[in-house]
Recover the amino acids of this structure.
């Protein structure tokens, strides 16, 4: 089997300060499909081109941020094998019973060295996209809102970037696609990693605030749709951080913006295809501004200060 | 390791009727980078965003078509494991010594049930793309010709589609992404298969002419570049088969056209991302026209008659 | 005043075989805004970015085609001056009283030498676009259907192309932007003319069938929207004649397709800007195929045979 | 004649601090075509899709900025009529003899109330675009640099905006397309005016520095080309002011950046079509940020402080 192990970022649970407001935002501005609530009141959403039940879960809380990031793995055997491997790496793991998240099987949870709760799961109910599996049409006409293709990746911040890098590379089968070096020219300020052909499935960047979320990223199909996303954000007066702009890292085009609770999200397009026989691209400290924001060629103040 | 086994379509050798003319075409119209000749006179080319030495090899011959299609695998161990697996599947294999193709390691070759020579290899010299690995720019300005991103996939025709499907799925780790059914509603007229996150890495379609090539496909980054490709083809009076148009199968946008020897090639963009937990999409016979050519909704005569 | 005289194609009245079916098509597939019916039962539509009341009028009839094409002129003085000029050119004119078309002022009508009823008018009620005139947003989100920007131009067929050309150039202030020559290399097979900066506002092409309509054209903003239009047509199984493709003439991108009554329409994008100091571009007979369909480089059979 | 009087922004002369450096920039970064030098050493350039000899003239000077902006008019009779009209408006005019600018006829020059030298001319040698007038191709392949379609418009700053507005509207035949109001809600902070179907051919914005240049604008055909322009600017380390972004005013997409002498230029795409029967769009002071920069919804500091 050519694609195995961890398949993709599958779901994440975000904390929001006002659930009603957040549901309105993710439905009408982001253009996700609401997939109902669970008994604890959490709200579920999926992107219209995803086939699994939900990729975004919102939980009302006093503080914004991410509760956990879930990676879908190939099957139950993989789940149990990776559970052992994570333990062997030295991290305690916890099993969350099937059904704790709607339509989701048993999850194996652990805390990455950067302080983020990561979980693995092998099963989530397939509900299908809007197009179907038999003689489908190619598009859904008249989509409203940003309407991303899928949850794409997360950028997570914490102190022990090397630790999380090693966990993801040596245990979970990710590969480093791009690296940004600290001023010392040796150690990793940030790493962008892939478990697939994508330019990145997860990124870790150095930050004193362990367990913090820089952004959750949603995929758009074209640069014209990135423009449309920016227009939709303005119509709804969504706070834009930066963009439309290109990243040097991954070459993708992007907008960073904030949900009503202050969680940064990204609407991302492009990025080259990655294969495991490709050497990582390396960014020196002096070029990092251009690496992150290819056109301004400098970090804006918010990039390194605002996380949730 | 999340991505393992067979990585991607890595190279193919096409037969051309006039090597000089073909070299001119692939250099100036297709916009590939010439990578030299070997002692036997074969001409090598790479796409500008590929890092390996070459993805296209041209050989002068009396008849157009494809000599062999090469799949790059993760490493030597994988190569030898897959060699055994192919033999266990019942196919004889042959080892082609390293260096027989320029800058390419040992290859393991076998004939697929549809009559095509397929080969696996683990090593090809990395020459890099035009951007480099340290603080790269995001684009190369002023590219001339169609200038595709990479070799993307092949569509191969022959009688025993099920046989090649089983070889690729059961032995080489591919997965069926989309299927087109024959009039009987049961057996496969064609299968589109992936060894990665791509919508397809290879396709087999039923045809009485074993070992024949329907097209080799080259990736373009945007629909605007598909238009540009069509414009470039017209400037050079390249024979266009069909397009710009969308496929229903994979949802990709495309042009089919012919090189000066009559080998069909595709300039392809898009296609959704595939994961191994996704059920195949199925096309019924009555909808196949729309599956292949989403806008005309019917096969043109050439689709099923012209192969090389 | 820099832009004066005839301003633009303002409205046209098409004959349809089944009004209900046509209304459904122009509302849900073309994505126009229904603007009501008049006492005689005619249905009115406008494009969403047009400010005047309506640009398309549908009339139930036994035979498809165009009843008349209306050009908006600057003001009443211009209307009356052009009325005299048309009479001086030798054509009888008729005044249609204000209100005969909903929200439309007095019209001056005459028959062009190619047998088409052309009318001029100076007033039509401004109803505005969806964005408004005070601190507007830049887009309307969630448009469904093809949703063109505006009515763009018509291509009309008849025998006396030179006559209509002279009427439009010498009397109505149009300029020839591009010409296609007959096999004799001298006389006009077709002329593309502009009264503005657009690459064309009207075209006349030689045809034995006087008074016939080749197509009414609707403007799209981008090549990606042309693709979307083709996708929408397929979803609704609209008969596509050709495209997405580029014209050599005007360089615009296009789809030709048919409404349910068989009236050909175009969804058009691009075309260079025209100025009155620019010499016409000339197409020789041998290159006309490429002039019309830049990528196929040949006329399809329907181009010269199917009109309404 | 439907389009008459002033046709378009035809040329402008910019002052640059280092002519060699500026020539390199406008040739290799902007991608204009060098059209030679005149005896006084000025350097001439044209956009590749323009047919007249040159649209940009560079003059070495101690201070950056614009020497004059030239408007092409329909013919000599128009030139002389407008000369009288400008005098009747109360402005002295000067005739610059034919040939003072290369390949350019007699010019009539006057100073607009905002302190800018404006000139009219009826003749400039047609040199043609790269495509030709007989059976042309649709594109030029392999263009390098930003490679704009044409000089599009200027934004000029000075105190007497109303005066320049009246000159352009009442004498030169322009129409106000959009207005931005001062805090008083009555008087014009800025006016965007058109002499054609374009969303603007010139803009005047209030500023204490009479005769100053905010930017000269160059047209790009697509939003993807706007991205390409930003990429090219980064490759060459051109100072970007803002963008890629959308304007609320005109809805166009844009980048503002600076040439090596500090002259701001714009690479602009889109903008709706204007007709003289359209009421101006009005922007209130509170919404001006969104009017100028639709996505950030606020003026950056440079917008109102940096001019040349």
């Amino acid at each position: 089997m050519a694609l195995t192990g961890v398949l993709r970022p599958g779901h994440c649970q975000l904390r929001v300060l006002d659930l009603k407001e957040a549901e309105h935002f993710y439905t009408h501005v982001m253009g996700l499909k609401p997939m109902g609530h669970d008994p604890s009141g959490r709200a579920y959403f999926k992107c219209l081109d995803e086939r699994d039940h939900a990729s975004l879960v919102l939980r009302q809380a006093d503080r914004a941020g991410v509760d956990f990031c879930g990676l879908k793995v190939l099957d139950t055997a993989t789940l149990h094998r990776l559970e052992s491997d994570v333990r062997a790496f030295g991290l305690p793991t916890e099993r969350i019973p099937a059904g704790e998240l709607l339509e989701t099987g048993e999850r194996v949870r652990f805390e990455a060295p950067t302080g983020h709760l990561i979980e693995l799961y092998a099963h989530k109910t397939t509900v299908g996209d809007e197009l179907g599996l038999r003689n489908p049409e190619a598009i859904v006409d008249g989509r409203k809102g940003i309407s991303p293709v899928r949850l794409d990746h997360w950028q997570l911040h914490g102190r022990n970037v090397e630790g999380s890098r090693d966990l993801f590379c040596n245990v979970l089968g990710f590969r480093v696609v791009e690296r940004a070096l600290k001023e010392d020219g040796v150690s990793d300020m940030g790493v962008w990693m892939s478990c697939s052909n994508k330019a990145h499935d997860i990124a870790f960047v150095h930050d004193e605030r362990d367990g913090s979320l820089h952004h959750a990223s949603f995929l758009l199909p074209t640069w014209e749709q990135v423009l449309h996303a920016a227009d939709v954000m303005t119509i709804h007066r969504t706070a834009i951080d930066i963009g439309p702009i290109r990243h040097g890292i991954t070459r993708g085009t992007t907008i960073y913006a904030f949900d009503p609770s202050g969680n940064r999200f990204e609407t991302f397009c492009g990025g080259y295809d990655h294969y495991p026989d490709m050497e990582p691209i390396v960014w020196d400290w002096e070029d990092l501004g251009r690496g992150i924001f290819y056109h301004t060629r400098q970090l804006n103040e918010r990039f390194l200060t605002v996380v949730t």
In short: Chain B has six helices and 17 strands. The longest strand of chain B covers residues 6-16.
